[in-house]
Specification:
This protein has 330 residues and is α/β, with parallel strands linked by helices. It contains 7 helices and 17 strands. Helix 2 packs across helix 7 and helix 5 crosses helix 7. It starts with 15 loop residues before the first helix and ends with a strand.
Length: 330
Amino acid sequence: MARVKCAKNLFMNMNVEDALGKRGEKSSGFIEVGRTSVNTYTIPVVVISGAKPGKTVGFLAGTHGTEYASIEALIRTTRDLDPAEMNGNVIAVTVLNGPHFEHRSAFLSPIDQLNQNRQFPGDPEGTLSRRTAYVAFKEIVSRCDALVDLHGGDIGEDIDCMVIAGSGGGKEVDAVALDMARCFPTEYVSKLPETVSGLSMTAQKEYGIPCVTSEAGTPYPIRERHIQFHYDGVMNVLKCFGVLPGEPVLAEVAINPKGYRYKAANAGIWHGFHELGSRVKKGETIGEVTDLFGNILESYTTPEDAKVTFLRTFYSVNQGEALIGLTVLK
């Protein structure tokens, strides 16, 4: 049986500062984030130090460990990038939330029942999710000139291609964040309210660097078009900061477009009538909730022409759970 040759430094502890100093090299390894009674948890880090100096762009994926399209996209990105062609650096964490990824749990860490993307800037003396956030900010984000956090639908969710732009970094930094968002092939961008806390994008306030979050995909199936959405956006962001050669292509987008999110008033079975990304007309029936005998409990129609940008993928539904999301795009 042939042995698999592991990548250089794969199982070595990562020193990010040392790796950044290795011009023209790609390094990978792990950084410890915390321990439980029987396990030591780490994050996988890739540092690509360009042949010439320049900006440093940070990337996170797997902040929610089942948002697979974004994870796959970042892994492909770090594989494909050639440091000989780069002016500047990339620091990437391909799976930030190891327990979530390992246990395939939804939304919350199985270790401390916390949402990883509500814990930033973290706490070095907190539980695992807070320690992970602290290490990510201290070891990765603090060394970056910009941050991209790649996301998608968690278990039970399906999200079409959109981007959230950070805020709170001042007029110039916020404008750069919006341009970063437009690097992704999306039709619309949501601007994060300055009052929101705990997200990775709070680095825009914490460090004064532009931040965006890309959203696309569902755990099952992992669609190639959603992987490509993240991948293309990441490569375009690197052009935006001069890390890669070439001019970035900025999408023409709607900013904070009108949207609708429907939640179940009754428990039962959800029947959605449209695919993610499809266009629906005003007055069109978009889904129903039935009881366990097939009787219709509630029916949903769209109030105006819109695009389906969020779908529930679970068959069963409880009261108050999200069903479908629409975005009004011209």
